[in-house]
Design a protein that fits this description.
By secondary structure, this protein is α/β, with parallel strands linked by helices. Helices cover about 25% and strands about 25% of the residues. The chain is globular, with a radius of gyration of 17 Å.
């Protein structure tokens, strides 16, 4: 099993060596297209892409309907490699666990783009990011068990899916995608915390 990067320097090294170039390949497009579709169906014009890499998702979004797109990635090398040039776009070099938006900033769609494996407590981070959602906003989670990561995060991910099946989480839609040539498979879910019940008037 290939070694997975542990810190920003290792991610930068791997990006510059071309290890993650395949993320722009045709075999990745189906799961990215579904993530973009979930933004359109359940989200809105302000998008936060956590684990954005080199911005592979952005070309699949309906750019004419975007108000803003913020991409966050631990690797400066990944962001340096992006070809996105748009006034609505900004990229931030930060870990998912360190990032916080400017005070008062809210997003209509927040994507966790193949990043939850690397979080110490994925459920806690999803809950934290839910606080950055606009009213009726959506969290979109994409998770694979593709090589070389197959098996290395299974217990953590199984526990996360189990927790997301329970309140307060509300699943809006979920799909499974597989790629015949590579054997890779992904699970994508659109969800949000269920709204708290309104107190009854006395």
């Amino acid at each position: 099993m290939a070694k997975v990067a542990k810190n920003a320097a290792e991610w930068d090294r791997d990006y510059r060596a071309g290890r993650w170039r395949y993320l722009g390949a045709p075999k990745e497009q189906a799961r990215l297209a579904i993530a973009a579709l979930y933004v359109r169906l359940f989200g809105g014009p302000r998008v936060l892409d956590v684990g954005c890499g080199s911005g592979q998702l952005f070309p699949l979004l309906e750019c004419q309907n975007l108000a803003s797109y913020t991409g966050v990635d631990l690797s400066a090398a990944a962001i340096e490699a992006t070809s996105v040039a748009d006034a609505k776009v900004q990229f931030v070099v930060a870990s998912a666990e360190a990032f916080s938006p400017p005070a008062g900033e809210r997003y209509d769609a927040i994507l966790f783009n193949e990043v939850v494996y690397f979080l110490a407590d994925p459920l806690a981070e999803l809950a934290r990011y839910a606080g950055f959602l606009a009213r009726d906003g959506v969290l979109i989670v994409s998770i694979t068990r593709a090589s070389p990561e197959r098996g290395s995060h299974d217990a953590k991910i199984d526990a996360l899916w189990s927790a997301l099946d329970r309140p307060p989480w509300q699943t809006l839609d979920e799909v499974f995608v597989s790629h015949q040539g590579s054997g890779n498979a992904w699970r994508l879910r659109a969800l949000r915390p269920a709204a708290a019940p309104q107190a009854q008037a006395p």
